Amino acid sequence: MSQCIGCGVHLQSEDKDRVGYTPKANSEYCQRCFRLMHYDDLTVSMRTGIDPDMVIQEIEKMDALVLWVVDLFDFEAGMIPGIGRKLMGKDIIMVCAKRDILPSELNHEKIARFVFSRLKEYGVEIKGLILTSKLHKDGIDEVKNAVNMLYKNRPVVVMGRANSGKSTLLNNLMGKEMLTMSRYPGTTIEFNEMEIDGITYIDTPGIEIERSMLMCVEEKELRNILPSRTIKTKIYQINKDQSFAIGGLARIDLYGCDHASITFYIGERLYLHRSKASAADDLWCKHYGELFVPTPIEQTFVTSTIRKDKDKMDIVIDGLGWACISGQIGTVSVKAPKGVNVTFRKAII
């Protein structure tokens, strides 16, 4: 049988519990893709088990233009350790997807300055930066123009972390929804070749998201964590020690506060609970799993504590979003599940 045009897996009709299963011999889509596309129903999870080294090694071998897709909302999780060294010498266009998720005050110029600053820290050189959005298909013509200038009769390989927006980008380039799109990481399972405007594009399996909140919760909770529309910021003024619980997923405790503020950039369905820092531990123990929901699968938490050394600083929790703190704050403590990456960076806004 042929490959599923949605995720690239080889189709089979023998084992309904194995990826690639389809009950129809002449189907173009596997059952998993069909149910994802029509019912948002995940029948087989593939968010783990896709070897990131295997994907990168295959890309390293190719003489190709690289479209590296990064989710702007979850930018830090999109960075791949050693990517500058592993893809050294390759022509890379970075496509920052989901621009429409970020608030309007974060304009293109601010985003570009932030991205280039972070790439410099990671030692990555790119040929171009393009911002795209799903809702209005912004940036698609710019991607096509950049590809036409740089592909030099080579294939164009599309890579990125799972759930970064690769399939959405390719569907927009094709002008039709052919590849399977969903909120679930690991939707594309195998290398999937297609032709768009006479150019060969290769969709790659989403590189496994490591150290992300998305890997620490039940998949049914992803709809409550990931933003589905433009973020509406939540701003709090702080004049004393405060604690903020983000559901039962993470907690930010702030000490030495005076004329300060914190702004949250998180999904609209997540519940924020504010309390005195001195009462935070008791409230967490008393209401965890009831008031403070959702909760991670692995309920071992680790605390990261730093002194605030910048006027404005972002606290980034991979897969969950970020909070920007400003003003007089002495110490910041972040409580997050073991294995989830927490980054303290210069504020993006």
Overview of this protein structure:
The protein is of the alpha+beta class. It is built from 9 helices and 16 strands. The chain has helices spanning 31-39, 52-61, 75-78, 83-86, 108-122, 140-150, 166-174, 222-225, 280-287, and strands at 65-71, 92-97, 128-131, 156-159, 192-196, 199-203, 234-238, 242-246, 250-255, 258-266, 272-276, 301-307, 312-317, 321-328, 331-337, 342-346. The strands form 3 sheets. The chain has a 6-stranded mixed sheet with strand order 3-2-1-4-6-5. A hairpin with a 3-residue loop joins strand 8 and strand 9.
Number of strands: 16
Percent helix among the residues?
Answer: 10-25%
- Largest sheet properties: 6 strands, mixed
Output the number of helix runs: 9
Widest sheet: strand order?
A: 3-2-1-4-6-5
- Give the DSSP E fraction (strand runs of 2 or more residues): 25-35%
Describe this structure in a few short sentences.
By secondary structure, the protein is α+β, with helices and mostly antiparallel strands. The chain has helices at 31-39, 52-61, 75-78, 83-86, 108-122, 140-150, 166-174, 222-225, 280-287, and strands at 65-71, 92-97, 128-131, 156-159, 192-196, 199-203, 234-238, 242-246, 250-255, 258-266, 272-276, 301-307, 312-317, 321-328, 331-337, 342-346.
